[in-house]
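Much of what follows relies on a compact textual record of a protein's fold. The record below shows the convention in full:
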Amino acid sequence: MIAGFVAFSLIASGVYILNDYKDRNEDAAHPVKKDRPLASGKVSTGVALIHMALLVAVGLGIFAMLDRYALYLVMIYVFLNILYTFRLKHIPIIDISIIALGFVIRVAVGALLAQPHIPLSMWLILMMFLGALFLALAKRRDDVLLASDGMKVRKAIDGYNLEFINSAMVVMASVLIVAYISYTISTEVQEKFGSHYLYITVFFVILGILRYMQITFVEERSGSPTKVLMGDIFIQLVIFCWIIAFAILIY
């Protein structure tokens, strides 16, 4: 499992390098991304591409020794990201769907590498996809705001505007909450965890989603989900309380 985590991290890093290589000129005009190694010129394109090839090759080699089905999934992940980098990222809606699908593939690979294999729950697939779409839309909203200030940092941004993204985020948030509620009250899940009170954790999920929407719509700083997660005490407390509540209910 640890070897798989390392291997996927290597491959994902290689994919990100390829994406940064393709976007280096656009990133140079971005107020934050301009400091990335390729966009700023701190790292040459030749060195970056060599590192990319080595990372992907080593990662695929490790997967070849671990599990052939996980290898097939990872190869699909790499192929999709190549298509995304050179073409699909410029097609509105398709771009964020590929991003979300990438996270689903991550989860599927983890399930295959677990010993014994963990069957993928339809709830996990649905909520992972919906959650990733929600976050991807929030990132696109940041790009739309930059475009309104005269900084067009992405071609696909022509297919988005604030009204569409705001509405889409509300839809994703609503469906995600309904999916999580359905998950907590399903007979299968209640029997699996031995608790009929998992629905209590819905409270924290709603709080977390509302806070992220507040950060996106009110504070307008949704460009980096990682920075939001690492820098927002409210969201960190909600996640902590969700984990504690879930643990108490099932143990």
The chain has twelve helices and no strands.
